[in-house]
Design goal:
The chain is mainly alpha-helical. The chain has one domain. It contains 17 helices and two strands. Strands 1-2 form a two-stranded antiparallel sheet. A hairpin with a 2-residue loop joins β1 and β2. The protein is globular and about 65 Å long.
Length: 440
């Protein structure tokens, strides 16, 4: 029986994408209710802004219309941290657990469908991966919190220092970008070393759990893992150099060696982490556009991050290179790539660009007085679940805030819906005659 039976005889709401959507919507509604309780907030807050905060937390985006540190009590901040943790891990696990249903195992066909989304490798048990994800998350978040406490307990005291450390450890690992400081990490104690700790958290959280699992085992690395490692290293080297080039005549990155540190942090954080160590609004338009490209690329499949996915971007570049060289096959790292992978990557890119174009037009129509670049930047950030902003989030009108809420949900759920649809399509035995179309 073809897998199309599963798709066609079950409603969308029972599919992985549907359950994920229900998970995020119900989590956002529950979070809004809890954050509206008197003990969760410092004073009266607009319901829409609280709902915006809850959606941003559960989708690990990081866009905020309210300052988290001054508007919410320690209980509210704890609720936001729990929403972030649930959203980051739930994104990868909830679809998997849903397809399990009441079964005690996952069939090879279902594992194949799931593998498109979370990159299950040959010989890697689904249950082993789930246990590893949970254990790795707990260990890394705890380690990050302890290291940050070394900087922040002396600066802010025991209770506040430990609270900030735990919150930021959760936020950085899950690529959420939420901060308890009003200016993100610009004036937080610890300087460049503190920034390095945050960067370690969101880079490891965004590289993908199967990549971490393979590296931890020390076994022969799959092509997916090698693509993620090489691609991540290349972007982490090229990104800061490009930002330094665009900010040559700008003091936004500071002076001396700290310019390199801030350039590295800002290049890395735009791939869905959402923290900022400098005022990005003061950076050049060229840097803003480069950041948007990074936001679209995103991080790795099966991670806490979002975006187009680095592997998709690499596939597109490899396919384009093959086409320009006139080759009929695409090779990468000694392997020949299947045509369906390239078609899937192309489909994802087209859908992403179509969504960005449509949403940007709607946002520009709703906010005609705002700077156009800032609006597009906000849209890309929301759809990529990044969380960076040029400072306009809090000034948006209610219709625009509602649209951003919807976009954050779309940005988190659409990859699973799309991948599920592409994986669930059975191939028709019918073949048509070939044809040639002139292009260019």
């Amino acid at each position: 029986m073809a897998i199309t039976h599963v798709v066609s005889h079950h409603s969308f709401w029972r599919s992985a994408g549907g359950v994920l959507l229900k998970f995020f919507v119900s989590g956002a509604l529950l979070g809004t209710f809890l954050l509206m309780l008197p003990f969760s907030r410092q004073h009266d807050l607009p319901v829409l802004d609280v709902f915006f905060t809850a959606v941003s937390a559960i989708t690990v985006t990081g866009l905020t219309t309210l300052d988290t540190g001054s508007n919410f009590s320690w209980l509210g901040q704890t609720i936001i941290a729990l929403l972030i943790q649930a959203g980051g891990l739930g994104y990868m696990l909830i679809g998997t657990i849903t397809l399990l249903g009441k079964d005690k195992f996952v069939s090879l066909r279902r594992q194949s469908a799931l593998g498109v989304t979370i990159q299950i490798n040959d010989g890697l048990s689904l249950f082993t991966l789930i246990r590893f994800v949970i254990a790795f998350s707990l260990v890394l978040v705890s380690a990050l919190a302890i290291i940050l406490a070394i900087f922040w307990v002396p600066a802010y005291g025991w209770s506040e220092g430990i609270g900030k450390s735990a919150f930021h450890a959760v936020s950085s690992f899950n690529n959420a970008g939420f901060s308890l400081f009003p200016d993100s990490l610009m004036t937080a104690a610890g300087g460049q070393l503190m920034l390095a700790v945050h960067a370690l958290g969101f880079i490891l959280g965004g590289i993908g759990f199967t990549v971490i699992y393979e590296m931890a085992r020390g076994s022969r690395l799959s092509i997916h893992t090698r693509i993620m490692i090489y691609g991540t290293l290349i972007l982490l080297v090229i990104g800061p150099l490009i930002i330094l080039l665009f900010e040559t005549d700008n003091t936004s990155l500071g002076t001396g060696w700290e310019r390199l540190g801030h350039a590295f942090f800002q290049a890395a954080t735009t791939r869905t982490a959402g923290f900022n160590s400098v005022d990005i609004a003061s950076m050049s338009n060229a840097s803003h556009v480069f950041m948007m490209i990074n936001m679209v690329i995103g991080a790795g499949p099966g991670s806490t991050a979002g975006g187009l996915r680095l592997t998709t971007f690499v596939l597109l570049v490899a396919g384009l290179t093959a086409a320009l060289q006139g080759r009929h096959t695409t090779r990468l790292l000694g392997r020949t790539l299947q045509v369906e992978n390239l078609l899937r990557a192309s489909g994802i890119l087209i859908l992403t660009l179509a969504l960005l174009s449509t949403i940007s037009l709607l946002m520009l129509a709703l906010e005609p007085t705002q700077d156009a670049l800032a609006i597009v930047f906000e849209t890309v950030s929301a759809l990529g679940t990044v969380g960076l902003s040029l400072g306009i989030t809090g000034t948006l009108g209610e219709p625009a805030k509602l649209l951003v809420i919807i976009v954050m949900m779309i940005g988190k759920v659409s990859p699973v819906v799309l991948f599920g649809a592409l994986a669930g399509r059975g191939q028709s035995p019918l073949r048509y005659a070939g044809g040639e179309i002139t292009t260019g």
